[in-house]
Specification:
Elements: H1 5-8, H2 13-20, H3 27-34, H4 44-61, H5 73-80, H6 88-110, H7 113-116, H8 118-123, H9 132-139, H10 154-178, H11 181-184, E1 193-195, E2 198-204, E3 213-218, E4 224-229, H12 230-261, H13 265-290, E5 297-298, E6 303-308, E7 320-324, E8 330-334, H14 341-356, E9 368-369, E10 374-378, H15 391-403, E11 410-414, H16 423-439, E12 443-447, H17 451-459, E13 463-471, E14 476-483, H18 491-497, H19 502-511, H20 514-596, H21 602-621, E15 637-640, E16 644-652, E17 657-662, E18 665-669, E19 674-676, E20 702-704, H22 710-727, E21 731-735, H23 742-752, E22 757-762, E23 772-777
Parallel strand pairs: 5-9, 8-12, 8-13, 10-11, 11-12, 20-21
Antiparallel strand pairs: 1-2, 2-4, 3-4, 6-7, 13-14, 15-16, 15-19, 16-17, 17-18, 21-23, 22-23
Helix pairs in contact: 3-13, 4-13, 6-9, 10-12, 16-17, 18-19, 20-21, 22-23
Coiled coil: 523-628
InterPro entries: AAA+_ATPase (IPR003593), DNA_mismatch_repair_MutS_C (IPR000432), DNA_mismatch_repair_MutS_core (IPR007696), DNA_mismatch_repair_MutS_sf (IPR036187), MSSS (IPR046893), MutS (IPR045076), MutS2 (IPR005747), P-loop_NTPase (IPR027417)
Domain Smr: 706-778
């Protein structure tokens, strides 16, 4: 979408970009963030899909582990020059970058992003090349903090060992000198220090000749001379030679490092570009999170804003709803001074521009923005003193250029249309301009104080009136956008409220035509009635919400009572079951003894059996009533235990499985784990899929059940496998420990009967051996 750069600053787009910059890790990304411009309409839908995927990845699989992200552009310039060598600092940047990129590759592979986020994978993740072979070589050269290791070459190892020996000898000599009482009496302090790279002793100036050596430096007062003893000087000279040899060897190592890296420069550039793009994309998602942003639908002919807010004001801003259909493409907004008209225009400009820049914006789901190819915004003072142009003339010059691009896919946002000149001429120009844009199918939203434009909004065909509401009782703006009505400017009323003399107020009212006074009074009366209706409507909504809340409480209480009834019935049944069994055992024992003694009365025994059977039937009647098994079909809204809400895609009666979409994931579950939703779940837009479950913690590919009892371990395993399947893992590791093997046996029995387990095996020695079970899950 084309937006004149001169207008971007007028609605504070650059301030938004300054908020984006600190969220970027790499300096190259920060530069791109500052230069970010809206995308072309044909490229926008795919880009927004990628933003949605990254938002879901961060939400459900964790944030991308960027960490330190060095700028490789200077490095890549060196690699383009044959024979050029990287400096140590540049080589360290390469090493840190390779560590970061390999960490990101591992993160993406572990979470199976290629299948779960295909668009983002094809545009960004596949650009991240595998440098594991070169990284193994680099790890032999550099430590984790980027320093060249002693083991980088045998020669470097020998040089550094010799340096340590020489440094030790220097310290020994200095300690020996400091222990000599004949010398310490000439020192300011019994210690040694470094001056100009030489080891020296602080000698009192008056005893210059008492210590044989070279004067390296002196104190600012001249009272102390820093003398290098002769015995140390020779060793220090040797140390300097070794340092020179060390620098030469490090330089040679870096040259070799550079030459091995040079063939990989193309892959390095591709990876760098991919990660910079991913860094910027992540910054957009993170900025959108600050104001709980959403990604609106794009396309169509209707501009639809639901609960829109100015991004820089966010929660301080009053949300607004606005729908501009294709057949009523002109919106005229009126309202009092200070009522928020300019803020509304800026908010609209930012919501559209940020959407085209790929940044989630503060509005509600159900919003949609057409694929505009041109945006014109006219806000504020355009006075051009250098070219001797007044504000009005400057606005007309900008408007002339913009009108050449006006068309069905253009959006014009103009604040204070017709201002800056004679009100009658300004209104005439404004009406003519709106008619011109209407004929070309251009969507145009303007604000005004001019009565003629307010009247045009009420009577014009294809024009939608709107206003920023004004509280007639407090004479204060409410900043609420009301579509379908007009509002006066109430300039005289506001002037009276702030305390202008009554003589001035009355004089102003006398100057106004009676028709204008009556019209303003009518608008004020309508505002009062509208506010009263709104208050009553709000009260009605509150009562309905309270009734709904009470109904939910009653239903919850009813469910709780039913559950308590079932619990008591279950407890009573279990208690009587135990008692009845004990009585049956006791009676069987007594009957056996009586039969042995041939003293059993068969008639009495028959009566006793009848009583026991009656008790048994009574006990059976206490059994909890079973619910009829539910039948499911494609399209049913269900609750999947324990994953959350979903939609049935297909039912396999032969296998006894149901395929359910939970958010963007598909899982196969037994029908017993499903229940139909009593309330209808609102249909989400296919372009903005929302996952209805919540991951309370990040899922990894391993779970530990060591030291758990068998029942506890089974509960943990069942819950973990459900979440692992949902997270997209194909291989997971169950750590049960070796011990006596009981937990391993319980785990294997559980896995054999699990419907989503394809196979499992004991861990290899490097994986943990018999203390680990490796499980392959069905995809």
């Amino acid at each position: 979408m084309e937006v004149p750069k001169s207008t971007l600053a007028s609605f504070e787009y650059e301030r938004i970009l300054e908020l984006l910059v600190p969220l970027c890790f790499c300096p190259a990304t920060q530069e791109r963030a500052r230069a970010l411009l809206p995308l072309a309409p044909e490229a926008l839908p795919l880009h927004l899909e990628v933003v949605r995927e990254l938002r879901d990845l961060i939400r459900f699989d964790g944030d991308i582990p960027f960490g330190e992200f060095p700028d490789l552009r200077p490095v890549l310039e060196v690699l383009r020059l044959p024979g050029a060598r990287l400096s140590l600092e540049e080589a360290q940047k390469v090493y840190r970058f390779l560590l970061m990129s390999q960490g990101i590759r591992h993160f993406l592979k572990e979470r199976g992003v290629e299948k779960k986020y295909p668009r983002m994978s094809s545009l960004y993740f596949r650009n991240i090349q595998d440098f594991s072979g070169f990284l193994r070589y680099a790890e032999k050269i550099f430590s984790q903090d980027g320093q060249v290791l002693d083991t980088a070459s045998e020669k470097l190892w020998n040089i550094r060992r010799r340096k340590e020996e020489v440094q030790s000898r220097i310290v020994e000599v200095l300690h020996r000198i400091l222990q000599d009482s004949r010398i310490t009496r000439y020192l300011q302090e019994p210690l040694y220090t470094l001056r100009k790279g030489r080891y020296v002793l602080p000698v009192k100036a008056q005893f210059r000749g008492m210590l044989r050596g070279f004067v390296v430096d002196c104190s600012s007062s001249g009272s102390t001379l820093f003398i290098e003893p002769w015995a140390v000087a020779e060793l220090t000279n040797e140390l300097e030679v070794l340092e020179t040899l060390e620098e030469e060897e490090v330089s040679r190592i870096l040259s070799t490092f550079t030459e091995k890296l040079r063939p990989l420069s193309s892959a390095l550039w591709e990876t760098f570009e991919g990660l910079v793009g991913l860094d910027l994309l992540r910054a957009k998602v993170k900025l959108g999170e600050r104001w709980r942003g959403e990604i609106p639908e794009v396309g169509g002919e209707t501009l639809r804003i639901r609960e829109g807010r100015h991004p820089l004001l966010f929660e301080r801003a009053v949300p607004f709803d606005l729908e501009v259909p294709g057949d009523r493409s002109i919106v005229v907004v009126s309202g009092p001074n200070g009522g928020g008209k300019t803020v509304l225009v800026k908010a609209l400009a930012l919501l559209v521009t940020l959407t085209f820049s790929g940044i989630p914006v503060p509005l509600a789901r159900g919003s949609s923005i057409p694929l505009y190819d041109y945006l014109f915004v006219d806000i504020g003072d355009h006075q051009d003193l250098e070219n001797s142009l007044s504000t009005f003339t400057s606005r007309m010059v900008l408007l002339r250029a913009a009108l050449q691009k006006a068309g069905p896919r253009s959006l014009f946002l103009i604040d204070e249309l017709g201002a800056g000149t004679d009100p009658h001429e300004g209104a005439a120009l404004g009406i003519a301009l709106l008619e011109y844009l209407k004929k070309r199918g251009t969507t145009c939203i303007v604000t005004t104080h001019l009565p003629a434009l307010r009247e045009y909004a009420l009577r014009g065909e294809g024009v939608l009136p709107a206003s920023l509401a004004f509280d007639p009782d407090t004479l204060q703006p409410t900043y609420r956008l009301v579509v379908g009505s007009v509002e006066g400017s109430y300039g005289i009323t506001i002037a009276e409220r702030v305390g202008l003399p009554q003589e001035v107020i009355q004089g102003a009212r006398q100057v106004l035509r009676k028709e204008e006074v009556a019209f303003n009074e009518l608008l004020l009366s309508l505002s009062r009635e509208r506010e009263e209706m709104r208050r009553k409507l709000d009260e009605l909504h509150e009562r309905l919400a309270e009734l709904g809340k009470r109904e939910e409480e009653v239903q919850a209480l009813r469910r709780a009572l039913e559950e308590e009834r079932r619990r008591l019935t279950r407890t009573l049944r279990e208690d009587w079951e135990v008692r009845l069994r004990e009585r049956e055992k006791e009676i069987a024992r007594l009957v056996g003894e009586l039969r042995k003694a041939r003293a059993l009365d068969e008639e009495k025994y028959g009566e006793l059996k009848g009583l026991l059977q009656e008790e048994r039937r009574w006990l059976e009647s206490l059994k909890e009533e079973r619910e009829e098994p539910q039948e499911f079909q494609a399209g049913d809204r269900v609750f999947v235990d324990p994953l959350g809400r979903g939609v049935v895609l297909e039912v396999d009666m032969k296998k006894g499985e149901v395929l359910v979409a939970v958010g963007e994931r598909r899982v196969r579950v037994a029908p017993e784990r499903l229940r139909k939703e009593e309330k209808e779940i609102p249909q989400e837009s296919p372009q903005t899929p929302i996952t209805t479950f919540t991951l309370r913690e990040r899922i990894t590919n391993e779970v530990t059940i060591r030291a758990l009892k068998a029942e506890e371990a089974l509960a943990v395993l069942e819950r973990y496998l459900d979440r692992a399947i949902l997270a997209g893992f194909t291989t997971v590791y169950i750590i049960h420990g070796k011990g006596e093997g009981k937990l391993r046996q319980v785990t294997h029995e559980f896995l054999r009967s699990h419907p989503y387990v394809q196979e499992f095996r004991p861990g290899r020695p490097e994986e943990g051996g018999l203390g680990v079970t490796v499980v392959t899950l069905r995809t």
